[in-house]
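Need residues for this backbone.
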């Protein structure tokens, strides 16, 4: 029961009692009647003062508690004219002002943080207390290839690893791991926690390292290739010259046919080594692309004969699905032709004998897809196939895909190479 109700109850008890006392005093005598009236007036005055000094201040403070409960920090309490109560009111008002300022500051910080997360080039994924995805910023959607982020909101990372391009569920808390995608892009993924309302919540940061690492590795392998090429070519040139001289001398003598044949084999091996090194040097010497708008459909048509020559001896069939209204795009004819032929060559080697290659263009996405029915790419090597000099072939040099990567980079294209559940391995080139 509220204090006001107690006061009303006290008033209801005192008024009949005072009325009875005055009535009895009046009947007893005039003197007692005056005393009774004075006493009644004093009691009424005291009750009024008690209400104003005790009950009303407590009611005011109770109203403040209601405001605090409703989190209405903009309202204030008025002074009630009672010293002790006004001190409480003053402290309460200051507390409400501090709470309002803190709440406003927190809201501004949260809004600023939200803007930072949305504008950040780094991918950010925030989980709730139940380790379910609560927020994904635009950069993370782009990196994880999420066209419909609502499909993963409210789900655990372990439940959506098939829907996103990077499996973050295997990264331990407070750890950083580097992940490479099938298109050769490299990301640094970090799992951390922060405290929200006294409890830990997890979040993930995804930072692109592709360009920095590629520039660093390119500088490194260019330097190494130039040094090796210089040393090998100079050495093989001297050896070949010496062996040619020896071959001429031996050819004039009888009975030294074996030595002459050995010299000839050594010359061939030196020439093969020189060609081997030259292949690496050619990657370093890729010319800058001269981009001219042209029809890629026409370029594919012009390469049909070359591609058929590569495919027919292996009983491989070519299928074309070229979009008629595919736009003209800025490309370097010579470099892009080499890219197409390299992709077809890899597809032929993957198939071996008796298979199909599908070449298609898509106007809506401005993309070219070359799919094959080969043996496919294992999951464990998807992230390595565009690494310099990496090859799954026993005698491969790992130059073909490196050349393709550098050329497509000059054309500002997105690309991917992976084997899909339908069994087809697709090389997709998307123009921006």
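Answer:
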């Amino acid at each position: 029961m509220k204090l006001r109700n107690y006061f009303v109850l006290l008033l209801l008890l005192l008024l009949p009692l005072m009325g009875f006392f005055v009535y009895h005093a009046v009947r007893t005598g005039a003197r007692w009647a005056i005393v009774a009236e004075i006493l009644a007036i004093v009691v009424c005055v005291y009750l009024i003062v008690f209400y104003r000094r005790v009950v009303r201040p407590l009611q005011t403070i109770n109203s403040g508690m209601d405001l605090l409960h409703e989190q209405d920090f903009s309202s204030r309490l008025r002074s009630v004219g009672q010293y002790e109560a006004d001190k409480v009111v003053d402290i309460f008002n200051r507390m409400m002002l501090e709470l309002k300022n803190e709440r406003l500051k927190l809201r501004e910080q949260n809004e600023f943080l939200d803007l930072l997360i949305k504008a950040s080039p780094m991918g950010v994924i925030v989980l709730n207390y139940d380790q379910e995805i609560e927020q994904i910023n635009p950069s993370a959607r782009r990196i994880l290839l999420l066209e419909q982020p609502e499909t993963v909101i409210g789900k655990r990372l372990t439940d959506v690893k098939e829907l996103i391009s990077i499996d973050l569920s295997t990264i331990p808390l407070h750890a950083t791991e580097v992940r490479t995608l099938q298109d050769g892009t490299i990301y640094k993924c970090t799992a951390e926690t922060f405290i929200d309302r006294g409890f830990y919540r997890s979040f993930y940061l995804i930072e692109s390292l592709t360009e920095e690492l590629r520039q660093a590795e390119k500088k490194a392998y260019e330097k190494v290739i130039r040094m090796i090429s210089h040393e090998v070519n100079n050495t093989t040139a001297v050896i070949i010259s010496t062996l040619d001289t020896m071959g001429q001398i031996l050819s004039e003598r009888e009975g030294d046919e074996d030595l002459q044949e050995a010299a000839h084999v050594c010359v061939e091996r030196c020439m093969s080594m020189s060609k081997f090194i030259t292949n690496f040097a050619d990657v370093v010497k890729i010319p800058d692309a001269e981009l001219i708008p042209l029809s890629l459909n026409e370029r594919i048509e012009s390469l049909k004969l070359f591609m058929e020559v590569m495919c027919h001896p292996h009983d491989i069939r070519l299928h074309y699905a070229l979009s008629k209204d595919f736009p003209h795009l800025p490309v370097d004819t010579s470099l892009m032709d080499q890219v197409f032929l390299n992709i077809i060559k890899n597809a032929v080697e993957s198939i071996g004998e008796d298979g199909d290659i599908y070449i298609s263009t898509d106007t809506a996405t401005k993309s070219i897809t070359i799919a094959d029915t080969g043996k496919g790419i294992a999951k464990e090597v998807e992230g390595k196939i565009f690494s310099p000099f990496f090859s799954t072939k026993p005698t491969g040099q790992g130059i073909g895909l490196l050349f393709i990567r550098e050329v497509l980079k000059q054309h500002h294209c997105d690309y991917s190479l992976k084997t899909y559940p339908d069994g087809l391995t697709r090389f997709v080139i998307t123009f921006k």
